[in-house]
Design brief:
CATH superfamily of one domain: ANL, C-terminal domain
Pfam family, one: AMP-binding_C
Strand content: 25-35%
Organism: Salinicola rhizosphaerae
Radius of gyration: 23 Å
Number of helices: 15
Structural class: alpha/beta
Keywords: Ligase
CATH architecture of one domain: 2-Layer Sandwich
Protein name: 4-chlorobenzoate--CoA ligase
Largest sheet: 10 strands, mixed
GO molecular function, one term: ligase activity
Length: 513
């Protein structure tokens, strides 16, 4: 099997003059980019980074970050991207945990890097206008001639670690997720197949490269001679401009970003006319948003992906808008099951329509092999060859998976289990509802009551929303007992709704009042 460096070489040999990457006015063909990538790989070696070492990258989605990612693949270095919004304390933890041998950063991560003691003890590579007297500028890594033999650096094997992603750490410290070249390539090949990508595809590189979705977009384009269009930081107008300028053919975004594009004042279907294939992941897309995306983009393919950093894809649905809420069936490289909550064995499966915990087969080609230095996390999540996701869901009579939330998000009211996703889907279809998040609030009588946090786009009150739920056929015990109107719905850096933050804000509000 190819490692990722050889995969890139195959594309260079096949289509050397195809445009590989753009970033505003910057663009490189595959042949030109290979020269840059090899030069950077040699430069990393001169800085002392070798096979199996970790290079931590704290950077937005610029061409330099994509170049570093590929240089590491050729050199056998483990690229370890972290959120560019990380605090000094968070960065310190990741550098120590990964045993990092170098760190690269741009203006977005400069404050944290320059204030971090661990970063001062290893080589530092800065991009842009960062002032770091003790580090080196990224541009100094470019233009280095190969050694006298002229050999291409290609030092990784399929079993070597390609990269290490860090989980978001919503419960406890972030966990490192090391992934091999073999697993990363398998995931990229599956992404190409499941999204029906062809040669000359152009994708938007706006999902962060510290997130599995961003990495998947980067790798998949390189496999098919495609173009990776960098957008350093999501901004609706900059994103729309990049789609127009580069005639982007496919999008792979979290639902929140589609919502923000559609809500932007300058959005028009004509600006995204080149987009033919739509993909989303990272969170469920409400039925209301799905209908709006379908109408605005009129895609030939509308793919829902359900997965995680540990195992890229669990399930896909290539006709997502035909069955809103469904995550489809097992993906190309995977098997899934739904087992009883708190099951100890993967054999404790539940029947159709019965909610439980979703688990995935670790023998799948895309799966990781365990967390970085976290045997406690391995014991919790890895059992008898299966990965226990902590996600709730059920299989319907046709065999399609419906993801209903996290195990911790399940609302238990009056002894009844209620899934937030079902209620969110109903309320999202109301024309006055822009966004909605459903969660459980503590209640002495019921244990928890169903509460809906609503960001409205027009005048609406609780009574009207309650009637709407009734008319939609929502069971009485599932209907929200409280509606809380909010100005904004808090989200993570990659657009995931922060349900716990909403609950904490509500608790703080009650305490203050």
């Amino acid at each position: 099997m190819f490692d990722l460096g050889r995969s890139f070489l195959a594309t260079v040999e096949r289509r050397p003059q195809a445009i590989a990457v753009t970033d505003g006015d910057f663009r490189r063909t595959y042949a030109e980019w290979l020269d840059d990538i090899q030069s950077v790989a040699r430069g990393l070696g001169e800085l002392g980074l070798g096979h199996g070492d970790h290079l931590v990258v704290v950077m937005q989605n610029r061409w330099q970050m994509a170049t570093l990612h590929w240089a590491c693949q050729f050199a056998g270095i483990i690229v370890t991207p972290v959120n560019w919004r990380s605090t000094t304390q968070e960065l310190s933890y990741c550098l120590h945990d990964a045993e990092a041998c170098g760190v690269a950063f741009d203006e977005a991560g400069a404050k944290a890097v320059l204030a971090c003691q661990e970063a001062q003890e290893i080589p530092r590579i800065s991009v842009g206008d960062c002032k770091d007297p003790g580090g080196i500028d990224f541009t100094s890594l470019l233009g280095q001639a190969p050694d006298t033999r002229g050999d291409v650096i290609c030092r990784a094997s399929p079993e070597d670690i390609s990269l290490m992603l860090y989980t978001s750490g919503t419960s406890g410290k972030p966990k490192g997720v090391p992934r091999s070249h073999r697993a990363e390539r398998a995931a990229a090949v599956a992404h190409v197949a499941q999204n029906l990508y062809g040669h000359d595809e152009r994708t938007l590189g706006v999902m962060p490269l510290y997130h599995t979705m961003g990495v998947r977009s980067l790798l998949s384009m390189a496999l098919i001679d495609g173009r990776f269009v960098c957008v350093p930081k999501f901004d609706p107008e900059a994103t729309l401009a990049a789609i127009e300028r580069e005639s982007v053919t496919n999008l792979y975004l979290v639902p929140t970003l589609y919502h923000m594009l559609l809500e932007h004042a300058t959005f028009a279907p004509s600006r995204v006319a080149s987009v033919d294939k739509i993909g989303f992941a990272g969170a469920a897309m409400s039925a209301g948003l799905m209908a709006r995306v379908e109408q605005a983009f009129t895609p030939s393919l509308f793919v829902n992906h359900y997965g995680c950093s540990e195992i890229y894809t669990f399930t896909i649905d290539q006709r997502a808008s035909d069955k809103p809420g469904s995550s489809g069936r097992a993906s190309l490289n995977q098997r899934i099951r739904v087992v009883k909550v708190d099951a100890e064995s993967p054999e404790e499966t539940v029947g159709p329509g019965e909610e439980g915990e979703i688990i995935a087969d670790l023998a799948g080609d895309e799966a990781f092999e365990g967390y970085w230095k976290r045997p406690d996390a391995d014991r919790k999540a890895l059992r008898d060859g299966w990965y226990f996701t902590s996600d709730m869901g059920y299989l319907d009579e046709e065999g399609d998976l419906f993801v209903t939330g996290r195990v911790d998000d399940l609302i238990i009211t009056g002894g009844e289990n209620v899934s937030p996703a079902e209620i969110e889907n109903v309320l999202s279809l109301h024309p006055a509802v822009e966004e909605v998040v459903v969660a459980g609030l503590p209640d002495e009588r019921w244990g928890q009551v169903v509460a809906a946090f609503v960001k409205a786009r027009g005048e609406i009150d609780e009574e009207a929303l309650d009637h709407y739920c009734t008319d939609a056929g929502l069971a009485r015990f599932k209907r929200p007992r409280r509606y809380l109107f909010v100005d904004e719905v808090p989200k993570s850096a990659v657009g995931k709704v922060l349900r716990r933050v909403l609950l904490n804000q509500q608790a703080n509000s009650l305490t203050t009042n």
